[in-house]
Amino acid sequence: MFRKRLPPEEERRVRANDREYNEKFQYASNCIMTSKYNIITFLPVNLFEQFQEVANTYFLFLLILQLIPQISSLSWFTTIVPLVLVLSITAVKDATDDYFRHKSDNQVNNRQSQVLIGGILQKEKWMNVRVGDIIKLENNQFVAADLLLLSSSEPHSLCYIETAELDGETNMKVRQSLSVTSELGDPNNLAQFDGEVVCEPPNNKLDRFCGTLYWKDCKYPLSNQNMLLRGCVLRNTESCYGLVIFAGPDTKLMQNSGRTKFKRTSIDRLMNTLVLWIFGFLVCMGVILAIGNAVWEKEVGALFQSFLPWDPPVDNFLFSAFLSFWSYVIILNTVVPISLYVSVEVIRLGHSYFINWDRRMFCSRSNTAAEARTTTLNEELGQVEYIFSDKTGTLTQNIMTFNKCSINGRAYGEVMDILGAQQKRVQPLDFTAWNPLADRDFCFYDQSLLEAVMVGEPAVHEFLRVLSLCHTVMSEEKREGVLVYKAQSPDEGALVTAARNFGFVFRSRTPGTVTTHELGKAVTYTLLAILDFNNIRKRMSVIVRNPEGRIRLYCKGADTVLFERLHSCNHELMNITSDHLNEYAGDGLRTLALAYRDLSEEQWEAWAERFRGADKATDCRDDRLAAVYEEIEQDMMLLGATAVEDKLQDGVPETIAILSLANIKIWVLTGDKQETAVNIGYSCKMLTDDMTEIFIVNGHTVQSVREELRKSRERMLESARTRDGGKEVEAQGWGGACAFGNGCGGDGASNWVPNKSKCSPPQAPPSSLLESISGEFALIISGHSLAHALEADMEREFLETACACRAVICCRVTPLQKALVVELVKRHKKAVTLAIGDGANDVSMIKTAHIGVGISGQEGIQAVLASDYSFSQFRFLQRLLLVHGRWSYLRMCRFLCYFFYKNFAFTMVHFWFGFFCGFSAQTVYDQYFITLYNIVYTSLPVLAMGIFDQDVPEQRSLEYPKLYEPGQLNLLFNKREFFICIAQGIYTSVVLFFIPYGVLSHATQSNGVPLADYQTFAVTTATALVIVVSVQVRNTQLVLQKKRKPGGRVGRGVGGAGVASGSALGRLGRGGSRRSGYAFAHQEGFGELITSGKNMRLSSMALATFASRHSSSWIDTLRRKKHANSTGAQNTPPTGEDSAASSQTPPLSTSSSAAGKAGQACNEPVLTHSPDDIALSVIRCPEREVGECSTGTVQEAPFVWKGTGARINGASSPGPPPIAEETSSGE
Fold this sequence. Notes:
By secondary structure, the protein is of the alpha+beta class. Helices cover 37% and strands 16% of the residues. It contains 35 helices and 35 strands.
């Protein structure tokens, strides 16, 4: 624990089999220590950590004051008992956690490993392994440290590993040793090995390693493909030997185990402010009573000096007042009792267990329950306004199925009848009858493709050959004829499986060969080179030599990239294939284009020489390789395209609809192509054909991005003018284009009022216009445009434009950009954000957001490990927020309101009593009552309310999403509510003190003896206090529920039917060209060898959706006031004529998708169900004037789900008439 900190390394030098040489560098041993304490350091270190909290230090300060007899009128145990209780509970919890860490550390450190010492393999504990040792690993063993692979029992010195503990991936990866060390398989040879490795210092980059091996006057470059990292497990390999490079805390596993940033809720931050205010109030009361003491001692106390002198330290009235001040600070400190913090933690712990125990958030298919991985953020789940979602594996299942393909201009996959009508898929093809190696789970329905394979069409055979050769899949044969593919990404597995079922079976591979079975005949290809994939190239290629000696390059990648590199003779075929790709994209499928090129021996030799030179380069190696790849990937011949389906998870459209109705805005941040994002947007019903406009920002320069954002705002304003019946709208700011933000399709156009004040420069948009946009808009922005939009001088423009749209989709974004977008909203919107994802590329976003949610899906567990909450299905998010989050926020708010009330009622009695006891710091209550008031007498009611209270059943929370909005507006506990609670507490204290005082002060018994003494008065007051505050628990609930009643006529009308303005910047319709070219949206890798273990995981894609306000309720008025107050905008209220005019639009009688008319005055959307659609209908408010529709109406006509798994036709705010109107099935 107290090891001397060494200066940071600049490079690491390791000599094999030379401990003496390596020890002079003082490298860390292989012993790990994740625990914080030991027996000696536990007490001082733990107490030091606990007193870092201001509350504990404050109560320790009070305890010290109470130990001074001259100023303490309370015994020390009144403070030390609760303080010790809190410290003890926390210490026991910390000790328990640390005990399990010690236990885990000991288990790992005492694992056995075979170390080569003196030419003999000896068993050593992991903790005794040193840098420079050579160790032997056997099958299914964990890797003890970060090793340089020297040799392996497998051919070509291959080594198969599983990295589940490292990055969550369960598929196998492959490593290979250098050829010069691959023959050192014998312990005697390895004992003579004295090579020296010079490499980078310890770091946390899992996918990179740079170093050089110096041996026998030669140097050999080392990469990540030669390394075995601690935490990996050796699989399918009998044994291997490795040289320890990094040990213990220097290993990449331990370097990545940094602690997650501590997150605090908005209520916690408010509590800190309120505690400071309360402390200031406490000081003020102490000063008042101290002044009273000084006056009383001078005017009255002096008369008693002869027979009641001051205590020895006190010699004047000012010193008496000084001591009295501290005495009252001690007595009145119960306004913030230490039990408050204990109770809050108990309540949060209970809420976390409710989440863990929720059977409706349990996935039986994956046997995964929801898990609250933190206990500090539960109430913040009830205040979420923005959700940032990944796509692949989050909204979709990340389980790919080969669906359709286009080969040599002919489309396969759709089963058509004689008349050309699509037939229903009845029975999939049976491949097992002629292909014993077929995968029985593979389904395909088009007989014509199978027939083309059987008759031997050359183009079809070559197409399937590309799929069986150009990939990075590993094959494992469990038993004869039973193949299991270990794919780095689900889409690659789907393509190889498709080729397998059609007779082109990938069987096995070595670093230099690929073996397939082509229609039953074994064929071995020589693997000459792999041209690596990365996010810039968006393609991968292999160069192979077939048994006849012909050399051919096979390539697959994004169509937009591949088409640029085709030979000119492919023009006609390219047009036909492009039409097929557009059709596939329209169905939401993920596409790839396939091509090949024949190479002569001379071309190959010349290129191979340049390739070897670039591969051995020490500087700019990646750039050199990319340039060499570009040379050979030209003049290719197009074969066709594939279409893979990534299905939506169950319940995604319904979940998005419900969250939208709760005014939660969903942004989708994806690494996939724009076309793919748009397709999933339509599938999720985030995007609809009824939207007014969909804006696409694809600029490559700062100026072009700024211009496209400006045009988007102008289109929005133009649409608002059109909807307002042609009325001219004065808009200032941003060069004539209005700035919008957080409107999200908010109020109707009739409620918009121009800002009379002057607008500031473009960087400071007028917030008064944020509520003016009521159309259905969507914004789609690409990664390169987003990079410019996130610059300091443009980020505000982007944010306000995006927040005026109902749906926002960011495409081709990097993990860092995901985090930057989340941080932008956190910084400027002051709203609670939630990020949800399932892959390692979502970790930065999850850690940046206020709340991080990880989905345990197909991409490992890194997102789960970084998250605050985890579950297995996106649809569980609605229950987490609308049920558990809402209840947690409600319970915590009620608890805090009641707790402050009861403690002010308890403490202020001392204040009033001070005026009747000569300001002598005499207490009203018995000391034991003071000690036990919060711990015993009033603890159970408030804890029961904070843990179990429900205002409505869970079903109602889902049926009435609008009930979620008070948390977003922070209505139930804020500074105003706090002052109301303490005012009520002070009033209660006045009643509790003066009524018993008035009754008992002059009352006498029949014999003339006074009725009351000090003890009787104290017991009477204390009894009344306990009864009153216990009864007040129910009153607190009633008061909070009453706040949700509508406050008058706050309805709003919607302008007359308008026509969508002009042409959109990027208008996307159902019939438009939306191509899905996901193009290897996974990590780069596998370039140097097929045995590279880099993960070619699919990049996630995300969709964004904005739902808008639907009810003309009290919530909308409060929201408008909130925005107006926060920005200081001076808005002119709408006149009666305006309201009347805007409300004379005829009522809607039909329900259309996108609910463009759902915000009509006195109308509320209701979700109904038909076999095909869940449409939005409207409920008229009978016998009411426009604008009088209240929350009560919402309760009479709730959002009722009458079916599941249905298609959501839309859910949005008042908008323009739909462009393509669909008749509701509910009519």
